[in-house]
Fold:
Amino acid sequence: QATLFRYQLQRYQERLSSLSNLGLPLERPYAYHSYHLYPVRLTQAERRKEAYRKLRQAGIGVQVHYIPVYWHPFMQAMGYKKGLCPAAEDFYSRLLSLPIYPGLREEEHHQVIRILKEVVC
Structure:
C-alpha cells in the first residue's frame, strides 16, 4: 500500500506542481506523511466551491476538511463567533482534500487532475 500511495502522491505532485495558483502539501525530511488525504490550497476561495461541485458531479469523492473548531455548534453555543481567527478561516475557505486511497483507479486520478486544472487555470 505504501508504494501505491507514493505513486499516487507523485502523480499529483508532478501534474499539479505547475499550477502557481494551487498550494500543494510539503514533506519535511524529518517527518513522514500518511497521505490519507491530499490537501490542496486554492488561491481563490470561490474556486474551491466550483472545484468541489465539479468533482462531486463527476463522482469523485473530494472533501472539505479542517473547519475551524470554534465554528462547530458546540463551540458556537459557548459563545465563540466567526471571525475569531481570520487566518484559520481563510485557510479553511481555500482547502480541498483530493482522494488518495488504494482503490483509486488511474482513470479517476487523471479525471481529478483534469477537472482541477480546468477550474484553477
